[in-house]
Design brief:
By secondary structure, the protein is of the alpha/beta class. It contains 16 helices and 15 strands.
Length: 428
């Protein structure tokens, strides 16, 4: 069996991996790391949870450290683009963890925080910058950041980038990057539009494909309960009260729906939190950190906000609302059964969602196991406490938090930065 020590990684990186208890690479790490150490471009087909962050972070850290250069003022040596704030922060933290014995600086930029701190950070220069496209464009337009010094470029979750409407931003960024660079491109799927996007960034790439999108985690037991829409909340509350759940991730199609779930669970004495686009960045990060630390065991999320969540110990995934895109179901349930552990995925399906269920079963080749309502469901439902009424105010709208399909440049300063100044993986 291949070990990290067989892949040609340097001693400081191997020591960091050992400190985290990592010994054996995942398939994408095993196949990608030697290619990237040679300086080749790479096209990786891999979904969240396959270990792709380490696949590009480890060889990139080694290459940058082996060729030390001054940090370019107003620039960076490596640029990683991520579609969401949570995923960007997670990637940046991985670089910090893996490179803790190296003298490399890591910065992370995304919306939701003031821009001034971010401008100052970029002005000092960075070795590695992790960014979301909109925030990156803002910094470039304000002349706070230049891409002309980029040696390594990573485009992560390309399919989600297109879903969120970042295609024009990506094309603009491509024009600003130097032609001589190493480029890495990752996507969970590779339809024609994604392949055409990859062709813009890559030069004679090596392709590595692992875990096709249609394959769901083998260790995930998948169940479906057919239920009326008005019964879903009671069913969820009853299940959470009676099942041994270590940590659960619950998916709601709408932002207001996610908040409503939190409210009902709270009335029943079940602590939970929600993350979605209407929450402030601090609120989203606080909820995610509390979930990671085990301070709360239940996290409710919309698909966009949950992209990139990688939390160990998620025993259950609940599809409170079934996704209308079959591939999204695979992304959702892939957040359980990590690192060899088993997992359970439960979908609550109303009559109008049955067509989406058929699409999911066709894509995955898995027939979900029926799980009937509890025999005493109505009696248990009648005993559930009602949540307190909301105070009068602005009327909520039941809107899907679905990806936006177009990109409109933001006004300079409209979005902000990650709260952090430069994170360093060692003093300089």
């Amino acid at each position: 069996m291949t070990k990290f020590s067989d892949l040609g990684l340097s001693a400081p990186i191997l020591a960091a991996l050992q400190a985290k208890g990592y010994d054996t690479p995942t398939p994408i790490q095993r196949d990608a790391i030697p290619v990237l150490l040679e300086g080749r471009d790479l096209c990786g087909i891999a979904q969240t949870g396959t270990g792709k962050t380490a696949a590009f972070a480890l060889p990139s850290l080694m290459r940058l450290a082996a060729n030390p250069k001054p940090r370019p003022p107003g620039g960076c040596r490596m640029l990683v683009l991520s579609p969401t704030r949570e995923l960007a922060a997670q990637i940046a933290q991985s670089f910090v963890d893996y490179g803790k014995q190296l003298r490399l600086s890591v910065g992370c930029v995304f919306g939701g925080m003031p821009i001034g701190r971010q401008i100052k950070m970029c002005g000092a220069g960075l070795d590695i910058l992790v960014a979301t496209p909109g925030r990156l464009i803002d910094l470039i337009e304000q002349r706070a950041l230049s891409l002309r010094h980029v040696e390594i470029f990573v485009l992560d979750e390309a399919d989600q980038m297109l879903d969120l409407g970042f295609i024009h931003a990506l094309k603009h960024i491509d024009r600003l990057l130097p032609k001589q660079r190493q480029s890495l491109f990752f996507s969970a799927t590779m339809p024609k539009a994604i392949a055409e996007l990859g062709a813009r960034f890559l030069d004679n790439p090596i392709q590595v494909a692992v875990t096709p999108i249609a394959s769901t985690a083998e260790r995930v037991d998948q169940y479906v309960t057919f239920v009326n829409p008005q019964e879903k909340q009671a069913l969820l509350t009853i299940v959470l009260q009676n099942e041994p759940i270590e940590r659960a991730l619950i998916f709601s199609r709408t932002k207001h729906g996610a908040d409503k779930i939190v409210k009902h669970l709270g009335a029943a004495g079940i602590r939970s939190a929600a993350i979605h686009g209407n929450k402030s960045q601090n609120a989203r990060m606080d909820a995610l950190n509390a979930f990671k630390k085990g301070e709360i065991k239940i996290l409710i999320a919309t698909d966009i906000a949950a992209r990139g969540i990688d939390v160990s110990g998620v025993s259950h995934v609940f599809n409170f609302d079934l996704p209308n895109v079959a591939e999204q179901y695979v992304h959702r349930i892939g957040r359980t059964a990590r690192a060899g552990a088993p997992g359970i995925a439960v979908s609550f399906v109303a009559g109008e969602e049955k067509g989406w269920l058929r699409d999911i079963e066709k894509l995955t080749g898995v027939k979900l196991t029926p799980a009937p309502l509890p025999s005493d469901f109505e009696a248990l439902r009648a005993k559930l406490p009602k949540p307190a009424a909301s105070p009068p105010g602005r009327r909520h709208e039941e809107r899907d938090e679905r990806p936006r399909r177009s990109f409109a440049p933001r006004r300079p300063g409209q979005v902000g930065a990650h709260r952090g100044a430069i994170r360093r993986t060692g003093g300089r």
